[in-house]
From TrEMBL:
PROSITE patterns to which the protein is assigned, alphabetical: NAD_G3PDH
Gene assigned in the entry: gpsA
Occurrences of domain Glycerol-3-phosphate dehydrogenase NAD-dependent C-terminal (ranges): 182-322
BP term (GO), one: glycerol-3-phosphate catabolic process
Cell location: Cytoplasm
Cellular compartments per GO CC: cytosol
Binding site for substrate: K107, R257, N258
Organism: Enterococcus hermanniensis
The protein's name in its UniProt record: Glycerol-3-phosphate dehydrogenase [NAD(P)+]
Length: 336
């Protein structure tokens, strides 16, 4: 059945997901506050800054007014950076006139509060303006979804019917959706894998090979699982798409902003220079700070995250940080 969907955030991932929805026959409005970008989408059906080779379906309508974008929609998909989630959710709640399903495909933890994105959305969007919140997450690159590469991700919600609604909304022959009731686990895996991807990129920048890559991904997954379980997640979620799946794709691909940023750090570039060079949000940088503070509060051991934090925020030398991480006192592998 054809649905009306507002996609909030015309970055690479928001644009790719809007394309999936449009190709599935839904009416799609793509909202952003950059007038020139929205004019480009409506006039030329391109979004060259984010996906330069993509021809956007002409049925997608760009909007700069949030009230117009969300008018009478069945679902609202948030794909804005984590730091903007609260402000956009608050504005949406002020202009909304009905009760759509709220979906988010952003990955991170809020600075200061350390809250997951679904928690922020629930706080800021009045109950009469949301049927529920569904998390859409998993191993995916916008560049590959845009060219119809095979992709599988997860729709997570405690309400199974809402998860299945999102599953049907997006699923087609190149984009497969699984459902999962573990919102905490899916959001935690989505956020924390960006930290490990920074480390994987840094190891590549230091010219380490596949052994080092396997080490940081495996031990990184252990850290993600420890913190996630302490927050209330199902440990099995972390061996699924939004756990090990998302970790693999983010730690091994040049499409990953976090991997690219880490690679530059490993080559000796300073953080400010790296972020300026990227030209897009690198969620792993802010997530590292939030995760480190959260781990301290919950008394969870996360040595890789702590090491990356020191590199990012205490200007620690990357190679020295790696040496210190490797020469810590020996521990039991399955220690949880």
């Amino acid at each position: 059945m054809k649905q009306k969907v507002a996609v909030l955030g015309p970055g690479s991932w928001g644009t790719a997901l809007a394309q999936v929805l449009a190709e599935n026959g839904h009416e799609v409005r793509l909202w952003g506050n950059n007038v020139a970008q929205i004019n480009e989408i409506n006039t030329y059906h391109t979004n060259r800054h984010y996906l330069p080779d993509l021809k956007i379906p002409e049925t997608i309508k760009g909007e700069t007014e949030l009230k117009a974008a969300v008018k009478d929609v069945d679902a609202v998909l948030f794909v804005v950076p984590t730091k903007a989630i609260r402000a956009v959710a608050k504005e949406f709640s002020q202009v909304a006139e009905n009760q759509p399903v709220i979906i988010h495909a952003s990955k991170g933890l809020e600075q200061g509060s350390h809250k997951r994105i679904s928690e922020v959305l629930t706080e800021e969007i009045a109950a009469e303006h949301r049927k529920g919140v569904v998390v859409l997450s998993g191993p995916s690159h916008a560049e590959e979804v845009a060219v119809h590469d095979i992709t599988t991700i997860t729709a997570a919600c405690e309400d199974r019917k809402l998860a299945e609604y999102v599953q049907k909304l997006f699923m087609n022959d190149y984009f497969r959706i699984y459902t999962n009731p573990d919102v905490i686990g899916v959001e935690t895996g989505a956020a924390l894998k960006n930290i490990i991807a920074l480390g994987a990129g840094a190891l590549h920048g230091l010219s380490y090979g596949d052994d080092a890559k396997a080490a940081i991904m495996t031990r990184g997954l252990a850290e993600i699982s420890r913190l996630g379980v302490a927050m209330g997640a199902n440990p099995l979620t972390f061996i699924g798409l939004s756990g090990v799946g998302d970790l693999i794709v983010t730690c091994t691909s040049v499409h990953s902003r976090n991997w690219r940023a880490g690679n530059l750090l490993g080559k000796g570039h300073k953080l400010d220079e790296v972020l300026e060079n990227m030209g897009m949000i690198v969620e792993g940088v802010s997530t590292t700070k939030a995760a480190k503070e959260l781990a301290d509060r919950l008394d969870v051991s996360m040595p890789i995250t702590e090491t990356i934090y020191d590199v990012l925020y205490n200007d620690k030398d990357v190679r020295e940080a790696c040496r210190e991480l490797m020469t810590r006192e020996g521990t039991f592998e399955n220690e949880f």
